[in-house]
Backbone:
């Protein structure tokens, strides 16, 4: 039997789909502890009892939002891997930056949700914690920083986090950073991509001491 999340994905305009979309938007703006079930119900234009009927309590809905977000990230990483498999690391990074920036800027609540999930002082434990560890390993292998995702050195994970956090922070902080640069949205996105490539590609194409900086031809991740 399909789960509520599967039903919402299959029918985004259904009541379950509308509630999921509203919850994702609000959780992305205020975090888990800043949102109530009544706020979500009001956003959809329904009674809170209807929300409980379709999704259960607030925690269940939050977990569904994070699971949905995680699946989107997994799909994007798989998309990147299909494009960059076997290509030089500079090309891999350029494609990864372009694809992930486009995705996060089109879905601004995604980066906010991840920051809330990772850094909130009153954060809730979620499946996203485990999934992000898997994502880091896959990206490390794709970038040529490890031979396989079962043996990823801490330095490799830290380098992946440097890339990941840079993109997330530029996306999440757009409303703060963009006015500082006096740019419209399209120009801001272009500058973010160019800046990340300018800083990160040279760093990743130089073999660092104590880490696996060189590429491993033919080795790709099981994303």
Residues:
């Amino acid at each position: 039997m399909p789960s509520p999340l599967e039903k919402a994905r299959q029918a985004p305009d259904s009541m379950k789909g509308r509630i999921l979309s509203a919850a994702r938007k609000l959780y992305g703006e205020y975090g888990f502890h800043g949102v109530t079930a009544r706020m979500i119900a009001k956003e959809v234009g329904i009674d809170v009892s209807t929300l409980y009927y379709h999704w259960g309590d607030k925690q269940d809905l939050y977990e569904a939002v994070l699971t949905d977000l995680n699946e989107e990230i997994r799909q994007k990483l798989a998309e990147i891997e299909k494009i960059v498999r076997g290509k030089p690391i500079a090309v891999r990074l350029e494609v990864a930056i372009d694809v992930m920036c486009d995705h996060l800027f089109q879905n601004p609540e995604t980066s906010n949700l991840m920051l809330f999930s990772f850094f909130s002082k009153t954060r809730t434990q979620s499946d996203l914690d485990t999934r992000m560890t898997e994502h880091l390993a896959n990206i490390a292998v794709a970038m040529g920083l490890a031979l396989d995702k079962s043996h990823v050195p801490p330095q490799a994970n830290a380098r992946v986090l440097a890339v990941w956090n840079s993109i997330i922070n530029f996306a999440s902080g757009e409303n703060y950073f963009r006015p500082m640069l006096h740019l419209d949205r399209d120009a801001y996105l272009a500058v973010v991509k160019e800046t990340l490539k300018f800083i990160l590609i040279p760093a990743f194409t130089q073999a660092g001491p104590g880490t696996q900086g060189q590429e491993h031809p033919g080795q790709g991740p099981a994303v």
User: Anything to note?
Assistant: Confidence is low (pLDDT under 50) at residues 208-223. The chain has two domains: 1-56, 69-223. Residues 141 and 221 are 6 Å apart (CA to CA). The two ends are 26 Å apart (CA to CA).
